[in-house]
Design brief:
This protein is mainly alpha-helical. It has one domain. The longest helix has 17 residues. It is flat, with a radius of gyration of 19 Å.
Length: 65
Amino acid sequence: MKSLPEDPIVEEIRAVRRELTKRFGDDINALCDFLVQEEQQHKERLVNRPPKAPQHARAAVAERR
């Protein structure tokens, strides 16, 4: 099987994942608590977007056009 070329972005994400796994000892609850704290401390970095309409609703709108 042919291997994919290395992607520096993917490698960075994997490195961060390994660091977080090590930091929280595979405790998903501790990781989630940490992420909630980060969100609360850095609200200016969050992006809120309205939810997308379900696929069938978008198709119905497109048919009416």
